[in-house]
Amino acid sequence: MSSTAGTDPGDLEEIDEIVRVYFDAFTSGPDVVARLARMRALLLPEAVIVRTCGMTPAVYDVEGFIAPRRELLTSGALVDFREWEVSGRTEIFGDIAQRWSTYAKAGVQEGVPFTGRGAKTLQFVRTPDGWRISAAAWDDERDGLRLDEEK
Hints:
six-stranded mixed sheet, NTF2-like_dom_sf, Nuclear Transport Factor 2, Chain: A, alpha+beta, DUF4440 domain-containing protein, globular
């Protein structure tokens, strides 16, 4: 992880924890609802989440983003699923920050095992209650779009 020179190390630690909670929320199995609720608490109520993935961008508000994921992660159609950050870089300036992450995912959907990788960007703002996610966007690898191999 990296940050802008002169940044309080506590800020970076807090953002690292938020990112960990964010990725942990996308895990099937017990406590899905609790993990999603914990993630929701780290998002501004007005946060914007955008999925691209080679399609027309889908723009979600917080509840519009969480509800279908809760259904997918609890319905039994998607099992043994998890997402995790592979690498991340954080830049902080005053009361704003950005995290650029590469991530991987794996699971079994309707009996078919799968894996994938992609990139996410999370924007943060400092609030009286600490750092919160104000926006997120992601894109996944696909034909013609690959992450550079991790060094």
